[in-house]
Amino acid sequence: MPRPGRAVRDDVPGREARPRPGAGRRGLRSVEDRDGLQGIRERVRLRKPQRVTLHGWSFRQLGGFIDYKAARAGVAVIHVDPSYTSQQCSQCGHVDRRNRPGQATFSCTSCGFAEHADVNAARNIAARGETGWAVSHAA
Fold first, then answer.
1. Helix or strand or coil: residue 77?
2. From CA 49, how far away is CA 66, in angstroms rounded?
3. Taking each helix axis from N to C terminus, what angle separates 6-16 and 48-56, rounded to the nearest 10 degrees?
4. Which one is predicted more confidently, 135 or 29?
5. SS3 content of the chain, % helix, strand, coil (to 5)
6. How many Cα atoms occupy the beta-carbon half-sphere of 124 within 13 Å?
């Protein structure tokens, strides 16, 4: 008999890979390269309930779902290097560890731009994907 909650955990990658409203409008989606997830279970320090959730994730399965669903929808997926995306300003490009004064806070020490840290990092990942797409499709 399956453990309670198993079906919910098994569906997490499938739910996360579902297209968001407006997804595919531009025909390009950028995602962090999954190689950056190597050893994440050993690197991350979490409380027990969070560890249970993390260890229940199948990152390879999630990546497969993203690739499969994007191909089915005709959306190109570009895998980009996530290095320093959380420390880089999406407005001026300045990279500094001090740009992240807190977990959820981003404030550029160069131009003063401030935004939620996850939103800023997502903008950087999207910009790297668009750059990678342009370079790979330049004639």
1. strand
2. 26
3. 70
4. 135
5. 45, 15, 40
6. 24
